[in-house]
Design goal:
By secondary structure, the protein is α+β, with helices and mostly antiparallel strands. Helices cover 42% and strands 18% of the residues. Strand 6 and strand 7 form a beta hairpin. The chain binds 3,4-dihydroxyphenylalanine. 3,4-dihydroxyphenylalanine (DAH) binds next to helix 7, strand 8 and strand 9.
């Protein structure tokens, strides 16, 4: 009996001293397990007399229960303690500023292209695209520039092979669209990347962006072109802008014109941006050449059309006062961020 008391004392002490749940579990296995000291004491039962056994048995059971209760009580205590420790360790300082995800912004060229698209869509145009690796056929032949024609020299070209090239202008989309829609009326804008074998400098790039405009129907006249381009100039550069036509030459238009906008910086008085002239050249245009219409399948005695090709970089540079075309492609985020519209 004395030994039992001693054992109980010892177990209670060990349980009380347990510092963690895992230590407590070890004590549990030790004291209540099959090979533990309490179990050993049980084995002594067989040496006792029949009268002594019940009291002894009751005592052992009492110890077992006491130890088990003590372990449960301690477990509760340790669980709270360990939870508090964990909470303390994993505490988050919600007053600290978090990391702000970086949100990019639309590229200035995309911005200008979308602006142009929007204003033409508002006039009933649809947007058409075409391949950048293009057939010589659509880029030149169908634009009334046959093999060996000197007009090909105006556009230094990246050839892939005899038949294919990187399109030099969005007029290639125009000739495809004409073929697709002939003999019916058509009203499209055709934006896209174009390529020229140019040496890159502040105003030249081997790759840039154009947008072609094309309207074919019965009775389309040069005055329709003028009204359309004046509308575009006012939307892009301000309501007080006016435009002028100068005679020009393109193989795919007749007559052909070069289009100037009155300078938006000096309002036409003359300044460095317009080189003192009051006018800024923005695009080439004209009445679609009868050959181009006929080749695509139109009856040029019944149908006529106008077309224009505008450089998107050029419009963006004028609109935002950008002095070097290379800014669009060198991806300096300080430049790109200037076109952020909101944070
Ligand atoms: N394709 C011409 C170029 O890249 C631009 C152009 C001029 C397009 C007159 C046209 C046009 O549609 O009618 O220089």
């Amino acid at each position: 009996m004395e030994k039992l008391e001693q054992l109980k004392e010892e177990a209670m002490q060990a349980i009380e001293n347990a510092q963690s749940l895992s230590e407590l579990q070890q004590q549990r296995v030790h004291y209540l397990g099959k090979k533990g000291p309490i179990q050993d004491v049980m084995k002594m039962m067989k040496d006792l007399s029949a009268e002594e056994r019940p009291a002894f048995g009751a005592q052992v059971n009492e110890i077992k229960k006491a130890v088990s209760d003590a372990i449960e009580a301690k477990r509760g205590e340790l669980e709270v303690k360990e939870m508090n420790l964990r909470l303390e360790k994993e505490k988050i300082d919600i007053t600290l500023e978090g990391y702000k995800p970086v949100i990019g912004n639309i590229h200035p060229l995309t911005l200008v292209q979308q602006e142009l698209e929007d204003l033409f869509i508002g006039q009933g145009y649809t947007v058409a695209e075409g391949p950048e690796v293009e057939l010589d056929f659509y880029n030149f032949e169908r634009a009334n520039i046959p093999q060996g024609h000197p007009a090909r020299d105006m556009q230094d070209t990246f050839y892939i092979d005899h038949e294919r090239l990187l399109r030099t202008h969005t007029t290639a989309i125009q000739t495809r669209q004409l073929e697709l829609h002939a003999p019916h009326p058509i009203k499209v804008i055709c934006p896209g990347k174009v390529y020229r074998r140019d040496d890159d400098d502040a105003t030249h790039s081997h790759q840039f962006t154009q947008m072609e405009g094309l309207v074919v129907a019965e009775g389309i006249q040069l005055s329709d072109l003028k009204g359309t381009l004046e509308f575009m100039a006012k939307k892009m550069f301000g309501e007080s802008r006016v435009i002028r036509f100068r005679p020009s030459y393109f193989q795919f238009t007749e007559p052909s014109v070069e289009v100037d906008v009155s300078c938006h910086v000096c309002n036409g008085k003359g300044c460095p941006v317009c080189k003192g002239t009051g006018w800024i050249e923005i695009l080439g245009a004209g009445m679609v050449h009868p050959n181009v219409l006929e080749m695509a399948g139109y009856d040029s005695t019944k149908m006529s059309g106008f077309a224009f090709g505008v450089g998107v970089e050029r419009v963006a540079m004028l609109k935002y006062g950008i002095d070097d075309i290379r800014h669009f492609y060198t991806n300096d985020v300080r430049f790109l961020k200037m076109f952020k519209r909101f944070d």
